[in-house]
Design goal:
The structure holds 2 protein chains of 2 kinds.
Chain A: H1 12-34, H2 37-58, H3 64-82, H4 84-96, H5 116-123, H6 130-141, H7 146-152, H8 157-173, H9 186-206, H10 213-227, H11 232-251, H12 271-285, H13 292-305, H14 314-327, H15 331-345, H16 347-355, H17 363-375, H18 379-392, H19 396-403
Chain B: E1 2-11, H1 21-40, E2 44-49, E3 57-62, E4 65-70, E5 78-88, H2 91-105, E6 109-113
Antiparallel strand pairs in B: 1-5, 1-6, 2-5, 3-4
Helix pairs in contact in B: 1-2
The chains are: A mainly alpha, B alpha+beta.
């Protein structure tokens, strides 16, 4: 029994927290052992039920992750023994496990290889829709319940349950592999994994999502960075998330409305997250393989360095946007670049760049135009652009903000 | 090993876009090469090209009797132009074959696993 810091104080919420931390690893290990996602998921769920009544009384086991994996494994084996098809499978499992009658799961976490990487590549396989990829990743790796996943994406629970069942069925029927892609496939496949993690984060940023999707995304990015230490874009994504997260509390007012970057109270930016993000970023940039996540993180890092908005090194930001546009030539990147150019060369230069973009349905495009027109004293055109932006804005808070004419601020913090 | 159906989808109009003789020759050659490659890799189970859907006949049971009707099951611009049945280790391996096949035939390919797939 854990005899450190008062194990008896562990309540159900505490068990849930620890369980969520550890369950992805256990699910991944059991899928490896039994070759069956549903069996692994159910077994880990049963282990959770056991933990809920045991841990608050007995205290936290010395190695909670190992405990969950062992308990879940035993449940899975019991269940397979009860079913005749299961007994066959168990025979296969025993054959596959080197040097043992039983599936090889050691209680020492150190001895258990980390199968989460395989699992995330399976969950984010391009043969699955992006919605399915996100849902599976949160459910299997993040340990969120189906209800929590559903709530995060404002989808009814039965709809989410069907989406998950369908995705798992496709993995099984079509034999989506459970392995880390080979070196030549890795860059492509990694892109879709990183996109899923980023999407989880931005979903958390956009809505007051129930179970803290931002924290979940950062946790996933940390796992990826730990298992793929040689991939600069993985580190770049982690740095980007940490730097964005450092500003999250100052990004909205208590009523939920947005605070633009220029207006944020910079003393509220979380310096610990900034330092961690910048340190990770420095290390990965040294590899000299810049990609979109590293460059976006670098842009955030420049903002983080400025104690006041006036001290922002905008010419450095323009250089970074040039590089970002070279690897990710999208209109949205071009728009953000134009904003930075506006800070260096003035609003007329920025407006000329913005005029070339075809982003008529993207509200920040109109908000940016409005701001530039206002700064040029073209108030009539500015008002029309604010109207257009407000009509397209996705949330009430953003709409109200734009109706007020964006006040004297520069750019939305993204 | 899992067996997969790789179906080649044609769209009317697009199906008859005028290919030069040279292009037809090249495409035919690529398809031959792919078939050889599938066979030597042990992945080939069956493959074939189909006649146009207007050559199809549908049979169904109506009041206990088999009734035949002329024409395809569904009138549509899209139709099955041909297919491969292959066996592969997993979906990734099947998708590699599908990429080669779509490059050879110049049409989109749908990959579907067979239900009773153990070979």
């Amino acid at each position: 029994m854990g005899d450190g810091d008062d194990p008896a104080r562990l309540d159900q919420a505490g068990v849930g927290r620890i369980f969520r931390e550890e369950s992805g690893r256990s699910v991944a290990t059991l899928i490896r052992v039994f070759g069956d996602i549903d069996l692994a998921e159910d077994a880990v769920q049963e282990a959770f039920a056991v933990a809920l009544y045991k841990w608050p009384d007995d205290g936290l086991p010395p190695n909670p992750g190992g405990w969950i994996t062992m308990t879940a494994r035993n449940h899975a084996i019991d269940r397979l023994r009860r079913e005749s098809r299961g007994r066959e499978l168990l025979g296969e499992v025993a054959l596959l496990s080197p040097g043992g009658q039983e599936p090889d799961v050691s209680e020492e976490t150190g001895a258990v290889p980390d199968y989460r990487l395989r699992l995330i590549f399976t969950c984010c396989h391009p043969a699955l829709s992006i919605e399915a990829q996100v849902a599976l990743t949160l459910r299997l790796l993040g340990g969120l319940s189906t209800r929590e996943v559903a709530r995060s994406f404002l989808v009814a629970e039965p709809t989410m349950a069907r989406r998950l069942v369908r995705a798992k069925h496709k993995i099984k029927a079509a034999r989506i592999p459970y392995r880390v892609p080979s070196e030549h496939e890795l860059p492509d496949r990694l892109r879709s994994v990183l996109a899923v993690v980023y999407l989880v984060y931005t979903a958390g940023l956009a809505g007051p999502a129930e179970p803290g999707l931002c924290a979940e995304a950062i946790r996933l990015a940390r796992v990826l960075a730990a298992v793929l230490p040689d991939e600069p874009e993985v580190a770049g994504l982690l740095a980007l998330l940490l730097l964005t997260e450092s500003r999250r509390p100052s990004r909205t007012r208590p009523d939920g409305s947005l605070v633009l970057l220029a207006d944020q109270d910079r003393t509220r930016w979380d310096q610990a997250l900034i330092q961690e993000g910048q340190a990770i970023l420095r290390r990965c940039l040294r590899r000299n393989q810049p990609g979109p996540y590293q460059l976006q993180a670098a842009i955030h890092a420049v903002h983080a360095d400025a104690a006041t908005v006036e001290e922002t090194d905008w010419s450095q930001i323009v250089v970074l946007y040039d590089q970002l546009f070279a690897v990710a030539p999208t209109s949205v990147v071009a728009l953000n670049r134009a904003v930075a150019v506006g800070e260096v060369q003035g609003p007329a230069a920025a407006l000329a760049l913005v005029a070339e973009l075809n982003l008529d349905t993207y509200y920040p495009f109109h908000a940016t135009r409005a701001d530039l027109l206002r700064r040029l004293g073209r108030h009539g055109e500015a008002a029309a652009a604010y109207q257009r932006a407000a009509a397209l804005a996705p949330t009430d808070a953003e709409r109200d903000f734009l109706r007020l004419g964006g006040r004297a601020s520069r750019r939305a913090d993204r | 090993m899992t067996q997969y159906l790789l179906s080649v989808h044609s769209v009317d109009g697009e199906a008859r876009d005028p290919m030069t003789d040279e292009e037809i020759q090249r495409s035919w050659k690529q398809i031959q090469v792919l078939n050889e490659e599938l066979k030597s890799a042990g992945a080939w189970v069956f493959s074939g090209r189909l006649h146009e859907p207007d050559t199809a006949t549908v049979v169904r049971i109506s009041d206990g009797e088999a009734v035949t009707t002329d024409g395809p099951f569904v009138e549509s611009r899209e139709h099955l132009g041909g297919f491969y049945i292959i066996q592969a280790e997993d979906l990734d391996a099947a998708l590699v074959w599908a990429s080669k096949a779509t490059a050879a035939v110049g049409k989109p390919i749908e990959v579907r696993p067979f239900a009773a797939a153990e070979a």
